[in-house]
Automatic annotation (TrEMBL), chains A, B:
SMART domains: CoA_binding. The keyword DNA-binding does not apply. Keywords: ATP-binding, Ligase, Nucleotide-binding. This is Acetate--CoA ligase family protein. GO terms for molecular function: ligase activity. It comes from Polaromonas aquatica. Pfam families: ATP-grasp_5, CoA_binding_2, Ligase_CoA_2, Succ_CoA_lig. Residues 485-521 form the ATP-grasp domain.
Amino acid sequence: MHTLHSLFFPGSVALIGASSDPERIGGRVLRFMLEGGYQGTIYPINKGEALVQGLKAYKNITDVPGTVDQAVIIIPAAGVETALREAVSKGIKSVQILTAGFAEIDEAGKQQQQKLVDICRENGVRMLGPNSLGLLNLSNKFSATFSTALNGLRPVKGHIALATQSGAFGSATYGMASLRGLGFSKIVATGNEADVDVAECIDYLAEDAETKVICAAVESCKDGNRLRLALLKAAKAGKPVLIMKAGRTEVGATAAATHTGSLAGNDTVYDTVFAECGAFRPQSIEEMLDIAYVCAVTGSLPANADVAILTGSGGIGILMADHASDHGLALPKLSAEGSAAVLEVLPFAVAANPLDTTAQVTAVKSGVTRTLDALLSHSSCATIFAYLAHVGLSPSRFQSTSDELIALKAKFPERAIIMVMLATKEVAAVLDSHGIPTFADPSRAVLAMAGAYQMARRRATLFSPPGARPSAKALGDVSTEAAAKKVLADAGLPMLPESVCKSAEAAATTATTFGFPVVAKISSPDIPHKTEVGGVMLNLQDADAVRLAYDELIRRARAAVPDAHIDGVLVTPMLKGGVETIMGIHMDPTFGPMVMFGSGGTAVELFKDVAFASAPVTEARARELIDSVKSSRLLRKWRGGPQYDEQALVKAICKLSEFGEAHADVLESIDVNPLVVRENGAVCLDAVITLR
Amino acid sequence: MHTLHSLFFPGSVALIGASSDPERIGGRVLRFMLEGGYQGTIYPINKGEALVQGLKAYKNITDVPGTVDQAVIIIPAAGVETALREAVSKGIKSVQILTAGFAEIDEAGKQQQQKLVDICRENGVRMLGPNSLGLLNLSNKFSATFSTALNGLRPVKGHIALATQSGAFGSATYGMASLRGLGFSKIVATGNEADVDVAECIDYLAEDAETKVICAAVESCKDGNRLRLALLKAAKAGKPVLIMKAGRTEVGATAAATHTGSLAGNDTVYDTVFAECGAFRPQSIEEMLDIAYVCAVTGSLPANADVAILTGSGGIGILMADHASDHGLALPKLSAEGSAAVLEVLPFAVAANPLDTTAQVTAVKSGVTRTLDALLSHSSCATIFAYLAHVGLSPSRFQSTSDELIALKAKFPERAIIMVMLATKEVAAVLDSHGIPTFADPSRAVLAMAGAYQMARRRATLFSPPGARPSAKALGDVSTEAAAKKVLADAGLPMLPESVCKSAEAAATTATTFGFPVVAKISSPDIPHKTEVGGVMLNLQDADAVRLAYDELIRRARAAVPDAHIDGVLVTPMLKGGVETIMGIHMDPTFGPMVMFGSGGTAVELFKDVAFASAPVTEARARELIDSVKSSRLLRKWRGGPQYDEQALVKAICKLSEFGEAHADVLESIDVNPLVVRENGAVCLDAVITLR
């Protein structure tokens, strides 16, 4: 039994603050619960009245005979602690605190909220809220909420669950969903999340038999790993999760190219984590509901990216093809057999994909459904769209087509058959109940299926969370480039030979050993940004040049940072050719170590052409990371050039990510810039490690 | 009187092919016309029946007493020519040919269609079609269409016009619009566009007093300049044009970076032209209708990009702010006075932008409208959004707020007040009629206003079409780099000194005159791609190097293209520094000469970081072009570097565009790659001119 079961399925509930006025908050909760037909026992708790909305009321929860499973507290904040203590003493298993005025207000409220948490924890009671809009469970008809959305819009039972932090966001979503007839299994608003958060609700809903699709919205996230694990659990349970997170555009635009952290922006990390854990992040409430609708109706995700489109309008077909192509779906060509089969039904059709039936299709008996059958029989497209204009507005004329479509779906149960047409609610409802969704807008139909497919695709490469972290050996000194490189070399990252020399002569000797040309760089823990002080000299061709460079670098460093501790001058071979890339570790405050990869110099900064992944990454994930960066084309026979050693790059990214994960407790960031990928191998030319 | 007036406002119409069967095509047209209540006279033409759907019928249009203004032809293709001749002999001013089976079928159909055009032209008759779904005019209730969409969805009179090429696309749009209650002024489907096309309809609608907003969809465009001029006319008449063009993603992805034409893709050119002419290109039918709705209801476009957001849900506010920021709208900070004014009404509010009223707003009399008043009084935001959850579903509770909103709108008639809430149709209709649009989905509300604002912004810099083109002097030889550069230099484009040398000695002498280092390139009309044959040698440091280079270049050219005509070797100074950009002219088959600008080397190819403009461009437009290319940041003190000479770049783009326009009749393309922008000046280092 999931630990949140008692919150959603109480056998009895005490409403502390129940009111006789059906419009006041405490009255609304009771009214909605009565209207909903809750199957358990309700005990109104009211100091003054013996009868509340027709139910016997009690002055105190302790007066209630027998046990009470759950308390719903809706009295002013000042009285909540006492009420909670009394409820706990009565033996409740869970509590909802709908009252506001705690951590969201001020420090005192925060402390008061913590007291409530402590009381619950000590007594093994689970708490929703405070400042929650409550929850609805359509299974036992339990509703505990004062949302006025219920005044006009009673929820319908269905298979979509909704878990949001913000009650208002939840009401908006629920309201829009209900107006279009979508049904829910459970709806929960977590409010201040003092105990139960959205992540734990997702974890619960992943197990809930009534829930097929999970819609969620987070404003913040206290425990990134808990959210990760909940999303992964839902994905593995085959349940699509559509999760919104507002605040996309806060990403700092002034990020410096070489600073991994500022390139990330917490929001990009949310994107990354959602995708790695199989979830989809819609851009709007309507998009979320569109995807939830197709997933709930079809009961599955498309098995491949291929779609076929049947349309009576060439223009609509092209419009849909545009969207499909934009959003990761593919339109395979119609095979010769498929074409022949179609032309047997519709000799006048444009037998392609999109397939244009032309208006003449209306003259052919069962023309649409027989053509769809031919397309499904002669392709492996997971999805087929049928654009039928406005036929669904004439239920009687559409009846036979509807029957045929239902038979077709029974013949091809694994395929998604998506209608795009104007239709009455009744016509659409019949198709819905047989697994066939209907959209009015062609674009929204395609985008919904594209979202569904993204989740299917992501399930193939879900993130594998690392096990318990063994205590890594201490990092040691990482204060200079040389020290940082040494540490990373020990971790398996590829480095050139290099040496920190203490004199001009030693530098010349070392350079001669390496072979010319060489690079010389100042080595000082007090000068992390060497280029800015002129601390790097490239392409030194002989021993004399190295001697001069040594003296010059020391001089420049002393001039720029007079009291810097100077270790000496780092000498290393000068590398020519290869493709410059950038990789790093960014410690995200919510999700921990994230690995970043970018390529192509200015492209990182100009086009934000970088990608992120949770550490550690597998080789497969590292390859995805490389693929998702546009500039990676530079590695692949660009303009007739060579194929560079991507496998070496993959290994370097993996090693860095493992290192980042192992030392997550002390790291702030790592920047390897550049990591040069060569035709044979790859090598880190510079590295900066920042500790917390 | 516009030349299309007779098509939309016939005083009498003959339906050639009118049928007694109200379900057949010829019967539907008559039925819909009768149901619509057409205010003119209808003459059914039917060979066999004396009475058709209650109207006296005639065997032939020539039998009709008196004059007939328009014929609508709905008989099989074979009889159309004869019917048209008879109608023309009767003195019709316009004709609609709804019959299909002409140019869209085969060459014979095309010829037959041309005959119809010729008949009309000879007699001054305007023709819609053939293969048109007809038109509806809500002013005189004239409808001539067989679209079954009218079976259930009678159009409502309003101020949105719809002009589409595809009848099916038009029906889809009209159907979706009618379901949401949008009203139309005129609806027209141009079909094969043998005479009247969408561009001319836009031109007509720009003058039409009943039309406030024009929705259009094109599949192809025969006359790009006609479309340009029509869009500009609408923009200047203050009428928003929302124009769709399917086929966005056909752009060839294999475009080579240096080939201007393939970088363009005709679709990008449509984007460019629509924007230059003040129109907006929606991505979906729903988006088009959303924007048309706000424009029709508010009657204007927002005067600036600034928006204020009032919300009872922090999360919804952030979501809307995300979309605003993504789509070119701005959220200015609330001023100190504004904040004070708001807090006077709602002491508990988060007085910022978005402004979170918190749920407590319900306890304050007129809290929402007084706060909106404060926000409007203390800011210059052209647009204010009010997110009010689901209040619009309770008409009686919402009545007072509705009244106050209407008063507020009267107080601030120039501002767009946009409601975001769930509402009944009646509640929304009342607000609509007072200029206040309502959206259910917060994201769609923001995107609609963003689209409206884009049109307002574009009106500030509309394209100025060139006047009649004076006959330009002949281009002369452009077969080699040297010849092409000479022609462009004469046109005012900046070039380095250069000389084609006929001997190694001459090359050495020339180089010495220029000063070292120099570049040497093979000069041959038969070797356009010099780099591919090793025909370019850089950084030659002295006379000896130039002599050796000369011989080597000649040897390489002879080896690669044995029978090439070789002019000699081009010698020019070697330039260091500056930013490499690329510019060109692409002759678009629809829209004529387009100027292209890009920057940053690989960015052009990897990120398609290029922009287009119709030639000729003004300096202001050239600056916009530069601004719209991300890599242009490289010109502007990038990473502490210099400010390069953008004014020289602007001038070069203008000169090239003027040259392209002047020689549009002979040019295929021009590629200037690279155009190096220096701290002082700019210079074309290579140029290829391709003639048609």
